[in-house]
Amino acid sequence: MPTHDDIAELSYEQARDELVRVVGELEQGAPTLEHSLQLWERGEALAARCEEWLVGARARLEAARTGAGTEASGAPDRGAEA
Questions:
Q1: Would you list the domain boundaries of the chain?
Q2: Tens digit of each residue's pLDDT (9 = 90 or more) over 7-42
């Protein structure tokens, strides 16, 4: 099993897919307690990575929404000056 360091390089989709795999393996039952703990720790790290992506996406959407609202409301109405 790769180290947790590689998780930082995963895309959202890669982290999500691996998390699904890890959860499935945990549900089937790992052969040893140590292996179960390793899977659990990796699953926690993968879930945190997915959360990072989602928080970042939410921030980008909010920035785009706020930016679009600022541009629309910040420009003076040139028709009113005439």
A1: 4-73
A2: 999 999 999 999 999 999 999 998 999 999 999 999
Report how far residue 64's alpha carbon sits from residue 44's, in angstroms, rounded to the nearest whole number: 30
d(CA 6, CA 52): 15
DSSP per residue, 26-77: HHH--SSHHHHHHHHHHHHHHHHHHHHHHHHHHHHHHHHHHHHHHHHHHS--
Pair 59, 28: CB distance under 8 Å: no
- Model pTM? 0.74
Q: Quick one: tokens of 80?
A: 């009113």
